[in-house]
Design a protein that fits this description.
single chain; about 325 residues; alpha/beta; TIM Barrel; eight-stranded mixed beta sheet; binds iron/sulfur cluster; binds zinc ion
Length: about 325
């Protein structure tokens, strides 16, 4: 992909990458996740080490834990073996998410020659989720779906339905790219999972929650079955610059709570708050841990809970 001047500016501001081993997964997470029928499914997330994504979104920090150069052949199956050894017995009906901080259908990230070995290792899973930029989720997804025993789900970043902000995120995507990808995947029986940002840069702060909810609605209307709300994290260089210029204001726990509450009120699909590193949003020791625990419970139940009040910060959401 040809880099633009925006790509170069964003890349120039990046801090150094972490050292990443191509032959070991970055991490494995075993949890339970709500399903559209309000049941719970065991869900294993494998964070794969692989080639960096060719896109250069202003908010992205996933590149920090990627390889220099292409993913070597054989590395992804080897990482899956290591991850599955760590998990041990796979619970019946479990789903697996392969998150490679890039695009599963980019052959630089996942060599095509590794597909048979990957598919073989995914045989025990009822659902297999891979992540991909909407513009790269095409025929290859249909091919993978046909190879898998379980159901394929493609997780795609919608980020925001705010059209001008989306363009400025440098994701090289318009809203309809998400719609087009979903229109290809859904009729083929492939699930769509969407990522929506809370605190997307260039969205006015007073409208943060409103646009997060509108984005959830957009994804659900296009056929997404699961939508995850992700609070934007500063620290990638470009976001810190945008924070200084006032074009990015880091999201708050309050906004995450409000966005999840309003999304649950829609009573459609599965909407989840991303809990990874959510503790960093805690700004009051009096109520923060209980507010995080409430989000966790709402993720599992899909039901609204009463807000947490606090004598210390007087938060009453
Ligand atoms: S498409 Fe995804 S992985 Fe690639 S730069 Fe954008 S946010 Fe990061
Ligand atoms: Zn408080």
């Amino acid at each position: 992909m040809k880099s633009s001047s925006a790509d170069r500016r964003i890349r120039d501001l990046r801090p150094a990458k972490d050292a990443v081993d191509a032959w070991n997964p970055l991490g494995v997470l075993v949890e339970e996740e709500r399903t559209p029928d309000r049941g719970l499914q065991p869900s294993i997330t494998i964070f794969l080490a692989g080639a960096e994504c060719p896109f250069t979104c202003v908010f992205c920090d996933l590149w920090k834990q990627t390889l220099v150069g292409a993913t070597p052949e054989g590395a992804i199956p080897a990482q899956l073996d290591a991850a599955l050894r760590q998990v041990g017995t796979i619970p019946p009906g479990a789903g697996v998410k392969l998150y490679n901080a890039s695009n599963f259908f980019d052959p630089r990230a996942v060599p095509r020659s590794d597909l048979p070995a990957i598919v073989e290792r995914l045989a025990p899973f009822a659902r297999v989720t891979v992540e991909c930029h909407p513009r790269l989720a095409g025929e290859q997804a249909l091919e993978l779906a046909a190879l898998l025993d379980g159901r394929l789900e493609v997780a795609m970043g919608l980020e925001t339905a705010h059209p001008q902000a989306l363009l400025r995120l440098n994701k090289r995507m318009e809203l309809e790219d998400f719609g087009r990808a979903a229109a290809l995947l859904c009729p083929a029986g492939i699930g769509v999972r969407a990522f929506v940002l809370v605190g997307a840069p260039f969205v006015p702060t007073a409208e943060t929650v409103e646009w997060a909810v509108r984005s959830v609605e957009y994804a659900l209307e296009r056929g997404a079955e699961v939508v995850t709300l992700i609070p934007v994290r500063s620290g990638n260089g470009e976001l810190d610059r945008l924070e200084r210029s006032g074009e990015f204001v880091p999201p708050t726990l309050n906004q995450m709570e409000a966005a999840l509450e309003r999304a649950l009120e829609l009573d459609r699909g599965v909407v989840l708050a991303d809990m990874w590193d959510i503790e960093r949003l805690i700004d009051c020791p009096g109520c923060g841990p209980e507010r995080v625990a409430r989000l966790e419970r709402m993720n599992l139940s899909g039901r609204l809970e009463d807000p947490v009040g606090c004598p210390q910060c007087r938060v009453s959401i």
